[in-house]
Amino acid sequence: MRRVTSMIIGAVAIMLAMMPPAAAGDATYQQVRMADLQSHPETYDGKSIQIVGVFRYALADNWLYPSRDAAAKRDRHQAIYLKINWAKIIEEQYLKPMDNRVVAIAGEFHFDGSSPGDGAMRFSDVMDITSLPCGPHIFRQNGLFGTNERPCPTAP
User: What does pTM read for this prediction?
Assistant: First the structure.
């Protein structure tokens, strides 16, 4: 199961690499692999980045994990904390359905230099969440929220 999840996330990362970087407002996000971020978080401190992982939703306690296995175990030593400053109704309506899905997250990343877990690696302000390879997409731009749906391919 872990191997299949890793293969899926790897395939999604390749698809993401072929897409143009996400943009919200005037920000353009550098695409970063989860392994690179975990190995050298200080390199990305204060930068606007985009990363792929498994999103776990819980009102005011959202995390991005490198695999479904880590997400199922809620292993926060491997996770990145997501500070989502969005209205509760927006979170419940749009983010809750994205729980346990592979997503691309874009925002400003911070690392406080402490050991992993408990929010040492975190996005201080998430601006864009896109379900991959298809499904919901929610973003904040100029203080306003927007959503759209990325259509899933249908079998012939």
Answer: 0.74
